[in-house]
Amino acid sequence: MKSDFIILLIAGICLYQTSAAQQLDVPFVATPPEVVEEMLNLAGVGPGDYVIDLGSGDGRIVIAAAKRGAVGHGVDLDPELVEESIKNAREAGVDDRVSFRVENVYETDYTMATVITMYLLTSINVNLKPHFLKKLKPGTRIVSHIFDMRNWQPDRREQVNYHNIYYWIIPANVEGEWHWKSDQQPVIMSIAQTFQKITDISIHNNALQDDEWNIREATINGDRITIIAENDNGTTRHIYNGSVDKDIISGTVQIHEETGSQLKTWEARRKSTIQH
Ligand SMILES: C[S@@+](CC[C@H](N)C(=O)[O-])C[C@H]1O[C@@H](n2cnc3c(N)ncnc32)[C@H](O)[C@@H]1O
Question: How remote is the CA of residue 33 from the centroid of ligand 1, in Å?
């Protein structure tokens, strides 16, 4: 089918040369307009976003993002495509909202992006993955046309006319041991994490590690963390909601007891991280 053909076309050829004889990791193959729109829909691109397309080709994704009110930036190793993108942006009337640069995706500073788009190859995505996870702010969205990131499962996946689109949200790093006080009593929470999934979590009411809470739910969404914990007999339920800023989580805890419910502020501090 069409997408299979494109994969073969891209994956089957090893070396590509731009007019300036620079080696491309992948040739120019344009994302169809309906796929571009769905990529931007999936990431919810709009005003306030800064969209960077890695390997921007003729500029179509960056230009489409700018038409939605975002600011866009494209990098491509092929100077002719960069020239063409600048011309296309001018014709589309969005040249005041976009910029393009001849640059290798491995050298691009994308730390300011709120959204990254890509139509490269799985191998390139996988090479970029550790840099994304290290450098991008939690909550930054990544959309990739056709190619995934192997063991980093996408948060969402869609198909448009047989074209796969993958969507990830950069998760906050919450691994380690977190401490706070509840009614003057120390509470200790330990978290293990793989990408956006909390793989293990425990909450204890004191340093002796007895009185462990049953965790009903524990999720990370960008910089947000939500945990639902219940005591052993299910008479007390705590719902923690917070935003993670490096080693501090701040937010609220809803406390539901047989006698009633209350909302309190919640601030947890990371005391140690797990070394891999
Ligand atoms: C499959 S095309 C995608 C174009 C555009 N993003 C789209 O979706 O229509 C990949 C683009 O990446 C560019 N490219 C390949 N290797 C690159 C590299 N190492 N750094 C920057 N751009 C690269 C190619 O010139 C090409 O325009």
Answer: 16
